[in-house]
Amino acid sequence: MHASALVDLSAARRAALKVSYTARALDGVRPYHLITGPEVRPRHGDLVVATVTEIGKHTRLESPAGRRVHLYPGDEVVVAYGARYAPDQFEAEPPTDLRPCDLVAAGGIASQVLSARSDIAPPTRLAPLGLVADSTGAPVNIADLVRPEVPRPLHTVPTIAVTGTSMNAGKTTTGAMLVRGLTAAGHRVGAAKITGTGAGGDRWMFHDAGAVEVLDFTDAGLATTYRAPLERIAAAARALHDRLIVGGADIVVLEVADGILQSETAALLHRDDLSAMVDAWVFAAGDAAGAVYGRERLRAAGLPVAAVSGRITASPLAAREAAGRLDVPVYGTPELCDPGIAASLIARPLVGAVGERSA
Description:
Blueprint: E1 5-8, H1 11-16, E2 18-19, E3 33-36, E4 47-54, E5 60-62, E6 68-70, E7 76-81, E8 84-85, E9 90-93, E10 101-105, E11 109-116, E12 124-133, E13 159-164, H2 171-184, E14 189-193, H3 201-209, E15 213-216, H4 230-246, E16 251-255, H5 263-268, H6 272-277, E17 280-284, H7 288-300, E18 305-309, H8 316-323, H9 333-337, H10 339-344, E19 350-352, E20 355-357
Parallel strand pairs: 2-7, 7-11, 13-16, 13-17, 14-15, 14-16, 17-18
Antiparallel strand pairs: 1-3, 3-12, 4-7, 4-12, 5-6, 8-9, 9-11, 10-11, 10-12, 19-20
Helix pairs in contact: 2-3, 7-8
């Protein structure tokens, strides 16, 4: 049996590394050491240096600054191990050793594809060289790189959460438009994506919409939330919410990704600690049936639904169809950007399955 070994990276190799969004806490302090060998067992969130061996679906890697860096065979990249839940792309689970695997998200997730949408190109292939390690040979996990927790805030602030039917239902766009409208209403808006797959695109959209601070689950030490322990996800959500309030936000917008039938999302919606943080929910859907179903699912969980939005609003006919079946408004992008409408979502009593809640 061969023991694991600690390998030093030369200055030239360190400088040439392409560091991903998920590994951004390392950027500027690039790894000096790798631990390698057949006994190495990666964990969710462990950082790994890998060689790109074949270009597939993901031709570019998102950098810590948000630039999409072109990939070429032979590139050495720093990514994180994690699972992926993406019905429009890949279902993937991280391998149990340093075997060849796949780049399953442009934000920098290494995993093994279990299934893929039929019209998606095969994944970009990776050959792991070793886990990023400290000088003692201990693997570095993104959970090790999290900033110290802030003190629990002494107050809370109004909070709106956005969730939806599935991937690409328009959740992030809905959240960003809310940020825009609330900012126009004079609020200091903090935004956080509390579940999903590590990537920066949603973060930059919230920033561009005017949020004063934007965080996501990677800031709480999770590369992805799929297959992560529910208590860990919930604790991360609370920590992100606290950090935004301590940072000066007077209103918070949260995005809950992956769709209400996804296992972790479905479980989170029934947690008292999440519902206690959120005053109003906006549901993003792609069609009228999804909008009606989603509203009922949220209300069954006792959550107050303020409005429906998402891709459905790209079709006036579909939006009218949904409006005819709903007792909450259906808002498109222009409405959510309106300061009066955005502020109204937390200003009026909302009806949930268990009675009225006043935001």
